[in-house]
Design goal:
The structure is a homodimer. By secondary structure, chain A is an alpha/beta fold. The first copy, chain A, is built from 18 helices and 16 strands.
Amino acid sequence: YHRLSIMLTRYSSGYSNNENKCLQKWNANGKMREKSLTMDTLNPQVKAVEYAVRGPIVTKAGDIERGLQQGQKHPFTEVIKANIGDSHAMGQKPITFLRQVVALCSFPELLDSSIFPDDAKQRARRILQGCGGQSLGSYSASQGVDCIRQDIAVYIEQRDKGVPADWDNIYLTTGASDGIVSILKMLVSGQGRSRSGVMIPIPQYPLYSAAISEMEAVQINYYLDEDNCWALDINELHRAYQAAKEHCHPRVICIINPGNPTGQVQSKKCIEEVLHFAYEENLFVMSDEVYQDNVYSPDCQFHSFKKVLYEMGPEYFNTVELASFHSTSKGYSGECGFRGGYMEVLNLDLEVKAQLVKLLSVRLCPPVSGQAAMDVIVNPPLPHEPSYLQFHKEKSAVLGALAEKAQMTEQILNTVPGIKCNPVQGAMYAFPRIFIPPRAVEEAMCVSLLLLEETGICLVPGSGFGQREGTYHFRMTILPTTEKLKVLLEKLRDFHIKFLKEYASLEEPKR
Amino acid sequence: YHRLSIMLTRYSSGYSNNENKCLQKWNANGKMREKSLTMDTLNPQVKAVEYAVRGPIVTKAGDIERGLQQGQKHPFTEVIKANIGDSHAMGQKPITFLRQVVALCSFPELLDSSIFPDDAKQRARRILQGCGGQSLGSYSASQGVDCIRQDIAVYIEQRDKGVPADWDNIYLTTGASDGIVSILKMLVSGQGRSRSGVMIPIPQYPLYSAAISEMEAVQINYYLDEDNCWALDINELHRAYQAAKEHCHPRVICIINPGNPTGQVQSKKCIEEVLHFAYEENLFVMSDEVYQDNVYSPDCQFHSFKKVLYEMGPEYFNTVELASFHSTSKGYSGECGFRGGYMEVLNLDLEVKAQLVKLLSVRLCPPVSGQAAMDVIVNPPLPHEPSYLQFHKEKSAVLGALAEKAQMTEQILNTVPGIKCNPVQGAMYAFPRIFIPPRAVEEAMCVSLLLLEETGICLVPGSGFGQREGTYHFRMTILPTTEKLKVLLEKLRDFHIKFLKEYASLEEPKR
């Protein structure tokens, strides 16, 4: 307990101000040369931003890692980072075909080399022909390279069994985050009670809350149903909407499917209900579908919001404004570092569309090598092509291992007293609930730090994603190798059991 | 004249509203299902953003280009895009060594191949060792890959003849734009008369005005002195500052050196004056130095703001808050598509620094292949290494050709009656002044469109960058190949002479 209190003090105080003060100097006129930018003068919207996935616990993990390299002693030999969906950092190997195409695009002299298969060369040539001066080094159009947008449209049509996709509605982005922020930015307006409200699931991926803070929009929480495998409950949507209408103007609903951090896969019926609700209430729909390839549970299937909207008939399909997001970072490729992604928009007002292009054009273009990576994901080798077998083998291996780890995570966590974990139906995370003694509640935030210092396991506390008041969770990825993940889960179990015991003994004297 | 009026109507009306209206539908309750996002409900800050470098003229150029490919007839066979600093699109070849390193990082199997020189392999290994799982596909830290930040610090120390650089102050960015927007975002606060004011040069690169609009900061214009080769005049800074103090809180001064769109290179004395001014007035300094390698005039030399600050003594060097920006997009590499860049900050308050990292972390990380490209630029082959000769030859060829084209552009433009062009001392642009008859003034915006339709030349009107009232300019890049640039300049000359004649004949009857 004492340990925890010290940590609480240590980590909540932040930086000392002394170091700053001594940097202040007197200027030539004898006035104090004050800093122009201090915590007092910092943009308050920046101050309000929170992003736990890379917060202080992760910084601490980095410090410990560097310490280990320099020979410092810890009760473990390695930090296991289960805080972020970063597949390659956890040892997943890149998809060979994707990297071949990117290498060929980067150094086209390799197009003459016999090292590379013809289908990779063909993809690279197609991409380069779409680039100014046939170079990855030229800016693309703000919306992305034309032929890549066309490939994406073809991919979406195939994925959605023939629902038409127009490449004019496709925009390449710098990861999915960039697209999400851009669309939100368009939608935020008004002051006071007419300020835009953004409906987000709780728990959520903190990009949403961070962007909402930064833009001073109003965050409208709708709670996912933990007792029902984190399903979205339409009644809860209505409740949240009606309550929010009193103090803001709800304009947009965000859905993450499969869920992050909650790992649920939405049923078709649920999606229909959401879309009907958005139709009735004139809401813009943002569907974050970056985990569309990450579905593990045999009872679940990914349904795109767009396809469901189409099946609801033209009255819906021709009216509901929808933006959906995809990424190179997740799925089976896990290419986070390339910052590739795209969004598809539906039913956007034409003038608004021109405004969107203008907004995107200020940042010039998404990284072109990320666009190339996105192209491979939507346009993989076909069965008759030379790279097909290897590609298929690599893809299946990644997705197979993830499915196995999803199941193992749920199983082991549910053997721990005081931990309850829903099935990890999809995505890359478990978000188990932890039941902690009342006296431990104050230090709930610190438990993750203690876990890190004692075991080297880096997780993110549930508060970073949002949770019902009085409940406690953490998010962990299922990305470490099967062996490491098993070690992680067992260490976690032992830590939690020990933690509960310590508190039990502290509480006894009081009774 | 008639031609111009028609165009004015055609291009100023924008999209017709009819197409949108027919998309509105009645919903199940018999209410009209209105669009959630229209020009009326769009974020007004987004509406206010302007970015001419990729505005309607460029869109039109793209349309004409596609038309040409499909066999449409125009009075020219090719569109020459001199609107944007996009070197590779204009035929500049990538630096071999840079692309070898990026290809090796993308597909590390190539590290075993004899195609690549050892120094390229060594750079690639170093970069990969800094990446999680030794993969470009993992997220880097929000500030960028450690070893690349270290290489940048070493580069800055060498560039600045020993002025110390701490890699803890280096942040990789998604092009320079991303860094500039992030720093500005930190600095914007307050309402009404205490709202943050941002001093920017006029003419300026429109990223600045766009970001200021988007953040609802106050733009404070200081005018560069066109009669003195676009030099920055310290008296004009004082004037702008004093005037602005009446209605906002000036907090930051932005300088672009070498200048975009104006091509001037600042003298050391001028930089000293700016820094002294910033010191006295407690301003944050943002120095956009992305053209630091693009200095052509033998009388000019690049001085970094940081080095000059250092030489002014510790009273300045230890107090003035400075952020300087660099990029992979310009210089001799011209790697725009990689979206690489970095910023160095000085004297940032420690708590503010933590807030900056937090803000950057929401977008996870800059593209890692762009970081790799940045690394090569700051860490090129050394004289004893196998790639040195070729690298040096390629770099000199690019910079030599740019110097030649800078001179040619100025010379030819100054032979045209009614055009006056300052020397292009650096960067990649000329920003000549055009003198047009009073009756033509109304259509000044349209002249560029007419030029495009008649000659295929795509330029940006001066209004996109800002200019003194009653003066007219355009920005053109010097990036087309020497032969094409010559054709462009001659076409431009002929067009302008013809244009002046048409107006002269229109004005005569009135006299």
